[in-house]
């Protein structure tokens, strides 16, 4: 038995004993909070949710300075303005919409996971552009509910512009789980937080023209069937529309889904045909141009980014409030879906001809059979619903829009210094 004076004193003084155990308990509680609660302003690991991404990431967020930036970015600076959480803010459409909202005085907070589906340095350049406009983009994943809850605690968003998604029709064959992760699990994760927020935000989000799938009735109207998706990407977007219906029905969340038709323009996505055709024409590489099996034309209703941005703002401006509070529905809420297209389908071979003229380089064309990996032959939007509801009126033809894209492309990848991958 230990007979040291310390031991004796330990046993004999209840006050010392109490102090010691109080100290130990506090230390344990502190360690627990530090490790497990990112909402306390520490570190959140989104990678545990994200086994499908090629680069697993850990995001840092929190702390008083971070909260101050979030609050300031989301602050409304104009009468009757809105405070919008934009997911996928460092994406193509996200950047344009965030900047447009900020410029007119709305509060905007960006959220993006900066994944490596395509060159993340382009996303960082977009983030820097947003920063200059006054938009702070938080680095994080929509599957990270602790982060989302924290954002809603710090800022009171009136709207969510949900653009974060795994895009691309053909890539779904290579990495199917990334579509489920972002477009289904991520969407549900976001809606779980939105439905419990007080007040609930109104949600405007990106669906896709691809939901029309094998539908052959043109132009595509919102009333046409969308139960024959031709790719997993399309299936996850269609699932999103059904999930929106459920959250609208159960919780009174207000939803506007926007079916975008092949959006293109400056700061665009390098995985899209007009973008990598430009790169490959300049490099002298051959361009695979898809042809339909019957010798028919493959065409798209290419829609310029400024027209899409106006459509997004129109949808936000006419979105009604959600009706629920604290996770409970109080009445029926708005549920809308709109085509946002250009109404002028252009054959892919014509797109290449326009690029040849703008770049002053002859393309090496290779005809290829339309692969059976999700591509559809033709898209054409009927936009009368969006026209009626919020005056959507696209004004940019493909020639004009591509001219602006090429100008941006050449200046961004100045004389091959940055070199598009
Ligand atoms: O409208 C939409 O909802 C979709 O638009 C695009 O999908 P897509 O129209 O297939 O756009 P691209 O991949 O840029 O293809 C444009 C056209 O070029 C054709 N193409 C593509 C690649 C290629 O190597 N050759 C080729 O001829 C495609 O068949 C298509 O007709 C986007 O990539 C999707 O994320 C978006 O949801």
UniProtKB/TrEMBL annotation:
What GO molecular function terms would the record report?
A: UDP-glucuronate 4-epimerase activity
Give the location in the cell: Golgi apparatus, Golgi stack membrane
What does the UniProt keyword field contain?
A: Isomerase, Membrane, NAD, Transmembrane, Transmembrane helix
- Keyword Isomerase set for record: yes
What sections of the protein cross the membrane?
A: 15-34
| Entry EC number(s) | 5.1.3.6
Q: What is this protein called?
A: UDP-glucuronate 4-epimerase
Q: What is the scientific name of the source organism?
A: Nepenthes gracilis (Slender pitcher plant)
